[in-house]
Every structure is written in structure tokens, then in C-alpha cells.
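for ur thesis appendix - VOC family protein. copy paste whatever u need, i formatted it the way the template wanted (i think)
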Amino acid sequence: MPDDQYASVRYLVDDVDAAVAFYTDVLGFTLLSRPAPPFADVVRGPLRLLLSGPQTSGARATPDELAGPGRNRIHLVVGDLDAELARLREAGVEPLGDVVAGPGGRQFLVADPAGNPVEVFEPAS
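the 3d part is after this line
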């Protein structure tokens, strides 16, 4: 795969299997590779999400004060936010708070199994 085929984001996760299942089964990503037990990468369109477990070099290189979920998040665009919210709830995933509306559209957040936030967004018409 060419290096510039995807924009990659690394999420530190404590359970790679649970993260892979969440992103593939619930959010529609495709497993790209699983070269070693503490690591996998999944893709959705041009986004490559690196799921790095505690034993990976990516996790070990993160200073303790920066480890864990934060305000940064991936942003997934959907055509029907209400339908996506219903689908996620049916899959057992509850939003982190209410749907928020602004001039650009509506959104809500969910958390992956490690607590990393994922924004689900519907642009304004």
C-alpha cells in the first residue's frame, strides 16, 4: 500500500480484540492487518486507524501524563444521524451525552472499548 493512501491516526487501546470488533462490527471499518497480538489496523475510506495495545512501541513512547483518551477524536460523517444513533443503540452503544447541533450540522460522541472518543456527524443540508 502506498504510504499516502491513508491518513493514519493512532489510538491507544487496552484490548485490541475488543477495539477491532467495535470498529469493524459496529462502525463499519475493515480490518487491514493484524501482524502481532498487541496491534491491528482498520480502515474506513481514506482513514487508517492504528489500534495499539499496551505492549506496542506506540504506547510505550507516550508519556504517562499524555496517555489515555482526550478531546481529540476521529470524525465519521453519516447521511442520517438519527438512523445511525438508533443503529448504534441497537448494537449496545450509547452516546456520550446528547446530540449537539450547530451551524455545520449535528453530532454525538461514542466511546470505543478503551474510552477513545469517536464523533458521529451529519452535515447541515
